[in-house]
Amino acid sequence: MEQEKRFSEMTPYELQQEIAKLNEKARKAEQMGMVNEFSVLERKAVMAKSYLLNPADFKSGEIYEVEGDPLAYFKIDYINGVFAWGFRLQGKDKEEALPISMLKKLKEF
Fold it and tell me: What is the mean pLDDT of residues 30-41?
């Protein structure tokens, strides 16, 4: 059996193919009512998308909107790989890590 490549070892093209495959599997799992399977596949796709982004584009001290949670904001303390470590605003003072693909730059007015 061939061992699967890690996301960090994949080319951008391979990552895009993997994301498409995961999204399709997640769609099928959702249609079949397999909520846990859907959640796992959806989370894997989010992780794969993080490897298509440049961690240097995410800055410590900046505040980002959390994708999928429009009223949640996240302040980055530091970046480690494709994870942003920090705190949610209006949340508990508990440090957490989010994949960088879950963060959206705030729109400037």
Answer: 95
- Residue 95 CA: distances (Å) to CA of 29, 72, 75, 109: 32, 14, 10, 29
Which tokens belong to 15? 């990552």
Is residue 1 assigned to a domain?
A: no
Q: Are residues 59 and 97 in the same domain?
A: yes
Residue 4: name the closest of 100, 25, 29, 15 by CA: 15
When pLDDT is averaged across residues 63-81 and rounded to a whole number, the result is: 92
Residues 6+ apart with CB under 8 A from 50: 7, 82, 83, 99, 100, 101
